[in-house]
Amino acid sequence: xxxHHPTGIKRWLFTTNHKDIGSMYLWFSFxxxxxxxxxxxxxxxxxYQPGLQFVEPNFFNSMTTMxxxxxxxxxVMPSMVGLAxxxxxxxxxxxxxxLPRMNNWSFWILPFAFTLLLSSLFMDGGAPNFGWTFxxxxxxxxxxxxxxxxxxxxxMMGISSIMGAIxxxxxxxxxxxPGMTLMKMPLFVWTWVITAFLLIMVMPVxxxxxxxxLTDRHFGTDFFNAAGGGDPVMFQHxxxxxxxxxxxxxxxxxxxxxxxIIAAFARKKLFxxxxxxxxxxxxxxxxxxxxxxxxxxxxxxxxxxLFFMIATMLIAVPTGVKVxxxxxxxxxxxxxxxxxxxxxxxxxxxxxxxxxxxxMLAMAPVDFQYHDTYFVVAHFHYVLFPxxxxxxxxAVYYWLPKWTGKMYNEKLGKIHFWWSMIAVNLTFFPMxxxxxxxxxxxxxxxxxxxxxxxxxxxxxxxxxGLSQLFFLFIIIKAIRSGKKAEDxxxxxxxxxxxxxxxxxxxxxxxxxxxxxx
Amino acid sequence: MSTENQxxxxxxxxxxxxxWPIIGAIGLFLLAYGGANFIQQxxxxxxxxxxxxxxxxxxxxxxxxxxxxxxxxxxxxxSMNGLYSAQMDRSFRQGMLWFISSEVMFFAxxxxxxxxxxxxxxxxxxxxxxxxxxxxxxxxxxxxQWPLTTTPAGETTTAMGAFGLPAINTAxxxxxxxxxxIAHHALKDGNRSALLNYTAITALLGIIFxxxxxxxxxxxxxxxxxxxxxxxxxxTFFMLTGFHGFHVTIGTIFLIVMSVRxxxxxxxxxxxxxxxxxxxxxxxxxxxxxxxxxxVYIV
Lengths: 517, 299
Ligand SMILES: [Cu+2]
Hints:
The complex is a heterodimer. Chain A is 68% helix and 1% strand. The two termini of chain A are 25 Å apart. Chain A is globular, with a radius of gyration of 22 Å. Chain A is mainly alpha-helical. By secondary structure, chain B is mainly alpha-helical. Chain B has 9 helices and no strands. Residues 1-10 of chain B have low confidence and may be disordered. The interface between A and B is large, with 83 and 80 residues. Bound molecules: copper (II) ion. Residues 244, 247, 290, 293-294 of chain A line the site of copper (II) ion (CU).
């Protein structure tokens, strides 16, 4: 088949091509990343010094809420789906995703869902202001009118991710080229198939939670109302049954990315491939029985606190296996430090810091001190920014030649890396200290004693925001005027997408399946 | 490459471009935006005046129905033209199974709420565990019991018994699973008249089930004082049975469409994915009902 592709706007609106859909997902997530980032800038500007400077407290609350929702559902998750779309079919030798039209539907729901969510900023009473966790009764009894639009927006996002997950899982189980056995699959494919499983299991539970919210708000049900025999704490249980697996949904694909890139630039086989697969699966399974570690202070029987504490700490074991394997892969490798590798190494180190603070938070007795402080904010931003987002960034640098046929400018890439590396730590490391000292999260004002840490964090945040615009500049420059990429730009890269396909990959790949040895 | 591989992979068909996905996305947007406005305008909680809500919602619904109709029409045409392979058939099957799994988890959320309320909330509100003060200070007159016919705030209702309509409905759904299995076997044996008859009987049983459930709801609202607002008992009762009823409705429509397609000779012994998907869906709805019958009505 000739490598023709449809032209004009219809190419994008009606497409069934996994590469087009992958690109749309990636660009969409980057736009959301900038919007959510702009909200973070508002938050950090307000927190630059104590007292109220720029925004009303209610608007501040809307900003923290929308920042969280947009980053989780609009930036991180779609970016991972974008990578899955581009890479999984090429990595397993399939011509496309298994259900290409549904794939397009999954994508196109998102811009509409986020239009709905963002429109709430302009509604009477303001955007949702109860935090991205939307605890009842803040979101039920006290939620602004825009809450209903938020609820239905979440339903749309849920439909999109469930369909995306079904597509990934079916593609992996049914579309592999002959010889591509499960234990030969690149680790990125493995981590994504496990992520897809998590999505199918927990997104419907989120849908259930927001549905109960909707009926509590408007149709007189009492799910989260003690006077009717319900319980606001039950909301937290249902939400975190979704919420904890959700954090692995955001990080597992980044694990896969790091595993591939580190092996490529260490010019070695990944150390402990099968243990990586089993560790990922154990993390996923354990993630279903740890949710109440977010609720240690809410009031739980002591047996419950103990169970969730111990179960949570168990997750450190498979996670430790992964970190060990990444380090062991680098051990005695002939390493070079191109931009994707730099981001991946930073990923390993900084994600581990976030993992350690996670173990601290998992200890029920000490969590009473950390709960709802900036320590928690520091913890999850360490796993999300230098974790999930550095992972995606590394992936973009690494696979850009495969996608576009162009190389980025290595020097600019390295500047981007060091800039983000310093800024991310400057932003989030001081939050550990202000949090340990007791600074509460989600409050626009604070005690004078936290001023220095907050100023550092704000300066870091502005630098971090700018570094993302610089990233955009590097990518656009690469696409427009980058050096033409060789078919195999990375000496140590392995996998079908590098060995069996040119750079850029043609519009249609693997119309006949490659033979995998 | 072996011939088996060619058989398995070479006929893979990446479907043509299609306008339906994005039309579906627009439909969902209208449904959601109109739905939120519609709800606010109906319940009048906020002064969301104007009456565009239900219009936008209806347009969204129409777009979605049109989209589904056309998308499936295209798919069926392609399938009848022999564009699909065994591999695509497997993709559809696996996709359907994972979709049903996600539905199971949706119901799990509501069953979880029911069990949490019964096993934890109600005893705790009654002072169990370390909750003596909750009981003494907030609701000293509250008597923990299930079904919760008197809420902590003092609202009363009556519980729905298990052995009347619900037991009949259980029998109906179980029978319908059986008739559907007969129909499915008839399809595999190439017995067209049995296939048609038993599929139609199954759909008819679905309609009878829905009729009886509507009657049950009518009784609950008008004679038993049992409503969606009757505390956590009413909430869990109506949300669980309501979502189940909604799924029975979808399943019944599915079966009716399958009856029509059987009559038009769309299915062969070997090639009848859509029929099996409908059957799986029906059995799933049936199993959910069994759990409902046990946990909502009996226990
Ligand atoms: Cu968690």
